[in-house]
Design goal:
This protein has helices at residues 33-36, 106-109, and strands at 3-8, 17-19, 44-56, 64-73, 75-80, 90-92, 119-129, 137-143. By secondary structure, the chain is mainly beta. It has a four-stranded antiparallel sheet, with no helix packed on it. A four-stranded antiparallel sheet has the order 5-8-7-6, with no helix packed on it. A hairpin with a 7-residue loop joins strand 7 (119-129) and strand 8. The two termini are 18 Å apart.
Length: 145
Amino acid sequence: MAKISLIGQDLAKEGLEFEFVGPLVGCSPCAIRNVCFNLEPGKNYRITKVRDKLNNCFVFRGDKVKTVEVEEIGTTLTMQFGRSLQEGSTVTTRSMKCDYITCSYIETCNLMHMKEGRKVNVKKLVEKVECPKGFDIRKVEVSLD
């Protein structure tokens, strides 16, 4: 089921995926802030429809936000494979503390955008990742409950 939210007019494009981080500083006096912040912080969303409605906003560049319909999408992480990493299991996120800075997976292996120690449910084992350090790493889709 789609949810309604607001996003800067230059970002309002169908298919755009983003993580909602929470309310912005300075939004508390705004009359339409509840529409902006009806999403859950830390969850990922995809814009499914952009509506024509424009609203004034003093936070976004251009002073306008568009009304959009969004759907929640799964979060993808990379995790070290082991017995406990199975579809349907609940695991605790841990940073790999990897120092291989040219690896394209360094952000997801080191949990740069997520708090370490968070419990997640494994929805799907997506694929094996070629780790330059030789670890058995899997890309997994998780739900943040």
